[in-house]
Amino acid sequence: MGTLRTAYRISTFSTPTLTRSANQIPGIILRQARWSSSTPISKLVFPEDDGAEPSELRHLHLDGSDSKHYPSYDSASNFQTALRQVFLDWKSAPNSRAPSPLVLSFTPAPTYTLGRRQKTLLPEQLERLQQPLTVIEEMKVAAEKQNGGTSSGEQQFTPEVIETDRGGLTTYHGPGQVVLWPILDLHSKYYPRLTVRSYARLLEETTQAILADGPGVQTYLSEDDPGVWAEAARQRTGGQERKIAAMGVHLRRHISGLGTALNVDVAVDGDEAFNPWARFVPCGLEGKTATSVRAELGEDSWRQLSLAGDGKTKREWYARRWAEELAKRLGVGIAPTTVHQRLG
């Protein structure tokens, strides 16, 4: 079956009557979301006519409301929550057809997310994070040139700052990055059981594999700090560690949430008008910072990779390869088509 055409639309709204938690940070709006769709979201968890076996992993990619917009982190998070709820409902009343494992992928509008450990954020810190951020999309520049245009590819955003239920401290998500959120049951009958530790390592090793196999970026893991770290960056900077992919895991009754965020071509150098990482200490790790596939390859190699035309400079390539690699490591197949869902 081809791409599902039903658009899932989320409307977010401020809720003055929403109970404020004791540790909510002032100045950050809590949101709720409403769903409307003519197709039940359960059809994405229990697909019936896509030609794949129930055990096969499904890859869902989330798009913005149109080609000029990125989906918000909020809307993607609410979409994930709705899918997870279908898994949880099944666990409360299981039958022979267990949920199919899923991977959500998307590139969000600029967003700073705060971990549940953060109790305070000073007004000046919040103001700094929400300063205008300029993003340069080179693919849009190339498309404009092909059509005779002269666009600089620059877009200016006011980043959102939101609270999450993951561990850790502040991190950034936005253009130039691909976010990968598996939704699966760690105790599913479709593959060997996973522990929290083995699942976290599975996410890290899946990311390592596609970086080594595709652009040829060598990485390492740390027992102290989760995520994937670039080996060449450590050598190049005289020992400074640079993270190329962040990881966060949230489990509820063995159903996974959150996952991995891979930096493909997000800005990681320069001043904070362009470099979102310059505004804070990533994940609260002093002396460590972020890097990207592009930064690790260097501009000449990145350009050559782009000219090769095999997609390895495109975030969609990394999203699909990551889903394929995860399925392989779980020991299951993968549905042949990536399903695109548009978030309003």
TrEMBL record:
SUPFAM superfamilies: Class II aaRS and biotin synthetases. Residues 96-334 form the BPL/LPL catalytic domain. GO terms for biological process: protein lipoylation. One of its GO terms (molecular function) is lipoyl(octanoyl) transferase activity. This is BPL/LPL catalytic domain-containing protein.
